[in-house]
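Page 42, continued from yesterday. The earlier attempt failed because a stray header line got pasted into the input along with the sequence. Redoing it now with the clean sequence only.
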Amino acid sequence: MTLESLLQSDEVIIIDVRTPTEFMGGHVANSINIPLHELPMRMHEFTELKKPVVLCCASGGRSAQAAYYLSQQGIAHCYNGGSWMDVNYVKNNRNL
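This time it went through. C-alpha coordinates are written below.
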Protein backbone atom coordinates (compact mmCIF):
# COMPACT_ATOMS: atom_id res chain seq x y z
CA MET A 1 0.00 0.00 0.00
CA THR A 2 1.38 3.43 -0.92
CA LEU A 3 1.47 6.45 1.34
CA GLU A 4 -1.14 8.13 -0.84
CA SER A 5 -3.54 5.21 -0.61
CA LEU A 6 -3.04 5.03 3.15
CA LEU A 7 -3.87 8.71 3.55
CA GLN A 8 -6.93 8.42 1.36
CA SER A 9 -8.22 5.29 3.09
CA ASP A 10 -8.76 6.89 6.50
CA GLU A 11 -7.03 3.81 7.95
CA VAL A 12 -4.17 5.91 9.26
CA ILE A 13 -3.37 8.17 12.18
CA ILE A 14 -1.65 11.43 11.30
CA ILE A 15 0.83 12.76 13.85
CA ASP A 16 2.14 16.30 13.43
CA VAL A 17 5.52 16.64 15.15
CA ARG A 18 5.72 20.44 14.98
CA THR A 19 5.48 22.69 18.03
CA PRO A 20 2.03 23.49 19.44
CA THR A 21 2.35 27.06 18.14
CA GLU A 22 3.08 25.84 14.61
CA PHE A 23 0.23 23.33 14.85
CA MET A 24 -2.22 26.05 15.88
CA GLY A 25 -1.24 28.00 12.76
CA GLY A 26 -2.68 25.23 10.56
CA HIS A 27 -2.76 21.44 10.47
CA VAL A 28 -4.37 18.41 8.86
CA ALA A 29 -7.92 17.89 10.14
CA ASN A 30 -8.07 15.24 12.88
CA SER A 31 -4.28 15.06 13.18
CA ILE A 32 -2.64 14.74 16.57
CA ASN A 33 0.09 17.11 17.72
CA ILE A 34 3.00 15.36 19.42
CA PRO A 35 6.09 17.58 19.16
CA LEU A 36 9.27 15.79 18.12
CA HIS A 37 11.01 16.38 21.45
CA GLU A 38 8.10 14.72 23.32
CA LEU A 39 8.25 11.39 21.44
CA PRO A 40 10.44 9.56 23.98
CA MET A 41 8.11 10.51 26.84
CA ARG A 42 4.99 9.53 24.89
CA MET A 43 6.01 6.18 23.41
CA HIS A 44 3.16 4.43 25.22
CA GLU A 45 0.73 6.28 22.96
CA PHE A 46 2.32 4.74 19.87
CA THR A 47 2.47 1.19 21.19
CA GLU A 48 -1.31 1.30 21.76
CA LEU A 49 -2.16 2.38 18.20
CA LYS A 50 -3.90 -0.14 15.96
CA LYS A 51 -3.47 1.77 12.68
CA PRO A 52 -0.42 2.86 10.69
CA VAL A 53 1.05 6.26 11.57
CA VAL A 54 1.93 9.01 9.09
CA LEU A 55 4.16 11.72 10.52
CA CYS A 56 4.29 15.26 9.19
CA CYS A 57 5.85 18.61 10.03
CA ALA A 58 6.68 21.84 8.19
CA SER A 59 9.02 20.47 5.52
CA GLY A 60 9.64 16.78 6.24
CA GLY A 61 12.83 17.01 8.27
CA ARG A 62 11.38 16.53 11.73
CA SER A 63 8.90 13.94 10.51
CA ALA A 64 11.80 11.97 8.99
CA GLN A 65 13.58 12.07 12.36
CA ALA A 66 10.38 10.96 14.10
CA ALA A 67 9.78 8.09 11.65
CA TYR A 68 13.35 6.88 12.12
CA TYR A 69 13.11 7.12 15.92
CA LEU A 70 9.79 5.27 16.05
CA SER A 71 11.03 2.53 13.73
CA GLN A 72 14.06 2.08 15.99
CA GLN A 73 11.65 1.69 18.91
CA GLY A 74 9.77 -1.12 17.16
CA ILE A 75 6.87 0.84 15.66
CA ALA A 76 6.83 -0.91 12.29
CA HIS A 77 4.06 0.93 10.48
CA CYS A 78 5.18 4.54 10.61
CA TYR A 79 5.77 6.69 7.55
CA ASN A 80 7.27 10.09 6.85
CA GLY A 81 4.54 12.08 5.14
CA GLY A 82 6.72 15.17 4.78
CA SER A 83 5.07 18.56 4.88
CA TRP A 84 1.70 18.78 6.63
CA MET A 85 0.44 20.74 3.61
CA ASP A 86 1.38 17.87 1.28
CA VAL A 87 -0.32 15.36 3.59
CA ASN A 88 -3.38 17.59 3.75
CA TYR A 89 -3.50 17.86 -0.03
CA VAL A 90 -3.29 14.11 -0.60
CA LYS A 91 -5.78 13.36 2.17
CA ASN A 92 -8.35 15.78 0.76
CA ASN A 93 -7.92 14.92 -2.92
CA ARG A 94 -9.03 11.33 -3.21
CA ASN A 95 -9.06 11.33 -6.99
CA LEU A 96 -5.32 11.80 -7.57
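Notes: The radius of gyration is 12 Å.
Reminder to self: strip header lines before submitting.
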